[in-house]
Design brief:
- The protein has 2 domains: 8-97, RNA polymerase sigma factor, region 2, helix turn helix motif (Rna Polymerase Sigma Factor, Chain: A, Orthogonal Bundle), CATH 1.10.1740.10; 135-185, Arc Repressor Mutant, subunit A (Orthogonal Bundle), CATH 1.10.10.
- The chain has 8 helices and 2 strands.
- Strands 1-2 form a two-stranded antiparallel ribbon.
- The chain is mostly helical.
Length: 190
């Protein structure tokens, strides 16, 4: 019986890319495309923008892979590129689009097209949360998404964004306060 070929590690693939093997980079893209898209969508709340920023992330990673420092994990490095691209994009003041989807009777309703269960009981909350996130300033949205969606520590977020941990904590606190105000209808009454 022939043993299946062992899956190459990220570092092995990076070395192959650095030696000119572009197919090795294709394998890295396959491994991390969904994760990078998740980050870019979480920050932009727009599918087209997330696609563009994900693609740009891989372009920049390919161009810079010769300088990759093996003391870091490849995905951590890639995520940092994606977050920085999104952060710069958001700081430029791009507006966010919610795509109206046609209803069966010809009317259009704005829905969160990322919701895998649009008919579910919590789809209204998901839609409202998406819209509330777009109302946060980019610096607060980035910290919130990295903490909640990516589950990064305060130190990791600070390092990724180049800000002190105290700034991470204050931005996260302000983001939570604004989200509470925007989503107060979902909070229990006391």
């Amino acid at each position: 019986m022939i043993e299946p070929e062992a899956r190459a590690s990220d570092v092995e693939l990076i070395h192959r890319v650095q030696s000119g093997d572009t197919e090795a980079f294709d394998e890295l893209m396959k491994r991390y495309a969904a994760s990078v898209y998740k980050v870019t969508y979480s920050l932009t709340r727009n599918h087209a923008d997330a696609d563009d920023l994900s693609q740009e992330t891989f372009i920049r990673a390919f161009r810079a892979i010769a300088r990759f420092d093996e003391q870091y994990k490849f995905y951590t490095w890639l995520r940092r590129i994606a977050v920085n691209l999104c952060f710069n994009y958001l700081k430029r003041g791009k507006k966010f689009r919610f795509v109206p989807l046609p209803m069966s009777d010809g009317e259009a309703e704005s829905v969160d097209i990322a919701d895998p269960r649009p008919g579910s009981a919590d789809s209204g909350l998901r839609r409202d949360l998406d819209q509330a996130l777009t109302k946060l300033p980019p610096d607060q949205r980035a910290v919130f998404v990295l903490r909640v969606n990516e589950e990064l520590s305060y130190n990791e977020i600070g390092e990724m964004l180049g800000i002190p941990v105290g700034t991470v904590m204050s931005r996260l606190n302000r983001a939570r306060e604004k989200l509470r105000a925007l989503l107060k209808e979902y909070l229990p009454t006391t």
